[in-house]
Amino acid sequence: MHCEQVHIDLASGALGGLNASDEAAVADHLRECVPCRTEYAGFVAVVRRLATVMPHELEPDGRPVPDPVPDPTGAIEAVRRERTEW
Q1: What are the φ and ψ backbone dihedral angles of 72, each rounded to 5 degrees?
Q2: What residues form DSSP beta bridges with 64?
Q3: pLDDT at 84
Q4: Cα 26 to Cα 64: distance, rounded to the nearest angstrom
């Protein structure tokens, strides 16, 4: 598998959206390709961050927000800050 082919599947793979065959092919490629492995690690970091970054945990009056929603922009910015530390 070539980088161009794998590139299409990296984000899907980070989200767990590949079938077993495609997942195995991507994993094989990532073992050999440092640039693709680095890019994949970035996608995984964003996915993990999206699951945890909340825009507001408390209302202005101090009450907890009942169902906070993930903040994709905040997650992406947090990952970018972390990547500069790598």
Answers
A1: -60, -40
A2: 58
A3: 63
A4: 42
